[in-house]
């Protein structure tokens, strides 16, 4: 049998027996009811019951011989402060109750003649108040007891986030060109210097900016990101500096800008080279004075923010051409870091691919065992003009299409599978320059590569590969033997 929860207990104190019985009949279906005819009897019941489960609510008549209801409830409050106290009174006694309501801590008072529905609703509400008080006290005690443990867990989680987003989270091998960049980050991150990150799109400049933030003394404050090339001047100014209600059409309420949100922390301004000269003047003021004026505001706002900017343009050339302010450039470029493209980091590609695969599996909720050797070879041979972002998208695509246990080379996009030929002219010329022998020998090497690419794309199905190449199965088999492409 299921345990039936005990009914909440109410003590009714009234010197009139008929009134006691009327109150009992009204309440007994929803409460465990105790009755007393006076204060002394009520105190005896309270002392007895509070040693056990206790009384949750006391309902007391104001007019009783010897003592008033307010005086009795004041004593109840002093001895059992958790008990919820309600008083019944006539119209002529309301003034006395109001005068003593704070001293007695009365939850509510009801006027006679009372209505059964109103009385029952009030008592149920009082019982809920008592229960919530008990829950709150219990939770407060549990939280105080757990506070050291919770603080420790929060700190452990923060340290883990810091490792993942700091320098330790930047994937690189022992001989990577990223290592000198990371060494420089380690040296300059603790100091409030403006940093300009230069490099091609998709090289991970935002990740490097986060690493600088998490290696700095501002690491426990906000890190805020804005792509300056994605918005026109007015919207960019509103995003960064905020605005007051009515500053422009559609400004229906005040909005805090990103600079103010980043106060005490770091703001990362990506694609800074795309901003207009007019906006550059306003940004220069923030860097020089540490203050800005929200749109529509008569007063400036002061902030303490570290600025990290990034661009894929040659800002020095932009300065020479008059498209970027020289004074702003030097304000941003206190320290300049060049982020190498992925084609200059071939030794990092297998590590990056594995890291990105782990993230992709979490994103798609799909798991595989990893890459085949052929896949890794093709990935390493490709130049990745879109850099890490392109590699990430390629892995997401492969994972979505995969029906086996591993990501095979046949899942690669044609441009990656056929690398390096046809991707970039310089890559193609470099590949051709590496071929040895006369024209016949070089043509045979090219033919071997084309045959192998067709086999990989058709998952080594020789019939499909032969049809794709316009060969018979016998002709294809001869070429496989000739070029050593037969799988053992």
From TrEMBL:
What are the Sigma-54 factor interaction domain coordinates in residue numbering?
A: 171-400
Q: Does the keyword Transmembrane apply?
A: no
Q: Name a Pfam family for this protein.
A: HTH_8
Q: Does the keyword Transcription regulation apply?
A: yes
Where, per the database record, does this protein carry 4-aspartylphosphate? 61
Using the record's annotation, list all stretches that form the Response regulatory domain. Answer: 9-127
**So which domain of life are we looking at?**
Bacteria
Swiss-Prot/TrEMBL keywords = ATP-binding, DNA-binding, Nucleotide-binding, Phosphoprotein, Transcription, Transcription regulation
Its name, as the record gives it, is Two-component system response regulator HupR/HoxA
Species of the source: Azospira oryzae
């Amino acid at each position: 049998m299921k345990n039936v929860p005990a009914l909440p207990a109410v003590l009714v104190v009234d010197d009139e027996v008929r009134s006691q019985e009327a109150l009992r009949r009204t309440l007994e279906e929803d409460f465990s009811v105790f009755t007393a005819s006076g204060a002394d009897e009520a105190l005896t019941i309270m002392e007895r019951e509070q040693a056990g489960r206790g009384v949750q609510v006391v309902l007391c008549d104001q007019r009783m011989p010897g003592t008033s209801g307010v005086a009795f409830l004041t004593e109840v409050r002093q001895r059992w402060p958790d008990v919820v106290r309600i008083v019944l009174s006539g119209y002529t006694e309301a003034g006395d109750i109001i005068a003593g309501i704070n001293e007695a801590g009365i939850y509510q008072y009801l006027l006679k003649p009372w209505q059964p529905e109103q009385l029952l609703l009030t008592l149920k509400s009082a019982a809920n108040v008592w229960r919530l008080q008990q829950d709150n006290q219990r939770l407060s005690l549990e939280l105080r007891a757990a506070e050291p443990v919770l603080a420790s867990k929060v700190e452990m989680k923060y340290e883990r986030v810091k490792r993942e987003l700091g320098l330790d989270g930047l994937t690189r091998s022992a001989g990577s060109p990223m290592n000198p960049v990371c060494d420089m980050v380690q040296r300059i991150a603790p100091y409030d210097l403006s940093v300009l990150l230069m490099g091609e799109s998709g090289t991970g400049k935002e990740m490097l900016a986060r690493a600088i933030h998490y290696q700095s003394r501002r690491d426990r404050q906000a890190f805020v990101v804005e792509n300056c090339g994605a918005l026109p001047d007015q919207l960019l100014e509103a995003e960064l500096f905020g605005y007051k209600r009515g500053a422009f059409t559609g400004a229906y309420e005040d909005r805090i800008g990103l600079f103010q949100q980043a106060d005490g922390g770091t703001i990362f301004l990506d694609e800074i080279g795309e901003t207009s000269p007019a906006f550059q003047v306003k940004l220069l003021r923030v860097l020089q004075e540490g203050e800005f004026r929200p749109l529509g505001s008569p007063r400036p706002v002061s902030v303490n923010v570290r600025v990290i900017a990034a661009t894929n343009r040659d800002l020095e050339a932009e300065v020479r051409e008059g498209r970027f302010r020289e004074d702003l450039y030097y304000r941003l470029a206190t320290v300049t870091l060049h982020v190498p493209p992925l084609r200059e980091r071939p030794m990092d590609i297998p590590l990056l691919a594995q890291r990105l695969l782990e993230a992709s599996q979490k994103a798609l909720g799909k798991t595989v065992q990893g890459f085949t050797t052929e896949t890794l070879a093709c990935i390493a041979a490709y130049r990745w003009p879109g850099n890490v972002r392109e590699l990430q998208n390629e892995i997401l695509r492969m994972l979505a299409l995969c029906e086996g246990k591993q990501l095979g080379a046949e899942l690669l996009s044609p441009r990656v599978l056929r690398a390096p030929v046809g991707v970039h002219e310089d890559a193609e010329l470099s590949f051709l320059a590496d071929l040895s022998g006369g024209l016949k020998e070089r043509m045979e090497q090219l033919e071997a590569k084309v045959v192998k690419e067709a086999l990989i794309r058709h998952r080594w199905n020789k019939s499909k590969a032969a049809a794709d190449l316009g060969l018979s199965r016998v002709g294809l088999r001869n070429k496989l033997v000739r070029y050593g492409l037969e799988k053992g």
